[in-house]
Amino acid sequence: MISIVIAGPRGNMGREAVKMVENEDQFALKAVVDHRYDGISMKEAEGMEPLDIPVYKEIEACFTEEQPDVLIDLTNPETGKVHLRKALEHGVRPVIGTTGFTDEDIKELSAEAEKKKLGAVIAPNFAIGAILLMKLSRMAARYMDDVEIIEQHHDRKLDAPSGTAMKTAQMISEVRKEKPQGHPDETEAWEHARGAEYEGMRVHSVRLPGRVAHQEVIFGGEGQTLTLRHDSLNRTSFMPGVRLAVEKVMETTGLVYGLDEFID
């Protein structure tokens, strides 16, 4: 039995995670962490599942009193960073579903997880299909090295480009030499019309109501194009990946960035 605390239980992802944990025989939901409520049960809090589970405002108090095995954090980039560090300090294995971590953050947190001999997971995307898209993109880039990425998310997402797009570009760069793309003399009449640039690849971010999480990776070659696309149509699409991350973090030492490490 894996005991779990969830941070961010009122969000769209958090509500789905609560349901998933409650429905898994090998998981036990010990508590939730929410910045609005403290000292009550979930069934007394507006916007939460009607469960007799305690709600904490301070994550350190939650860790001290509940002593969970795993933290699932589905909050926001800044809060996620704080919660990850606090989890490691208290011997809790974090599964973080927020993005916005820098390379320096990941390096520092990796060292801390190794020092504590704990597993930790930061997942830019929990959808298994999105992970397969990343891995297939890496494969395709060996043979078609002109590539652009278009990612689309809801208009409440704080960071751009998405962690998924960044991770995809980083995985492609492992097999692709840095190179300029487009006409060598191209100009932008409007700044950033060609999107962000990463080692010559262009990354475009769309933010619109009605979107959930979508990504296209488009490869161009002589006389042909290849388009790989993944669409998450609702938040339940992320739950198999959350479940996988919780299971794997219990078997892992050190920080793993991206679920691709767990999928052959």
From TrEMBL:
Entry GO MF terms: 4-hydroxy-tetrahydrodipicolinate reductase; NAD binding; NADP binding; oxidoreductase activity, acting on CH or CH2 groups, NAD or NADP as acceptor
Keywords, ordered alphabetically: Amino-acid biosynthesis, Cytoplasm, Diaminopimelate biosynthesis, Lysine biosynthesis, NAD, NADP, Oxidoreductase
Catalytic residues (positions): 153 (proton donor/acceptor), 157 (proton donor)
GO biological process: diaminopimelate biosynthetic process; lysine biosynthetic process via diaminopimelate
Transmembrane intervals: none
Amino-acid biosynthesis in keyword set: yes
Pathway(s): Amino-acid biosynthesis; L-lysine biosynthesis via DAP pathway; (S)-tetrahydrodipicolinate from L-aspartate: step 4/4
Domain Dihydrodipicolinate reductase C-terminal: 129-262
PROSITE patterns: DAPB
Alphabetized NCBIfam families for the sequence: dapB
Protein name per Swiss-Prot or TrEMBL: 4-hydroxy-tetrahydrodipicolinate reductase
Organism: Alkalicoccus saliphilus
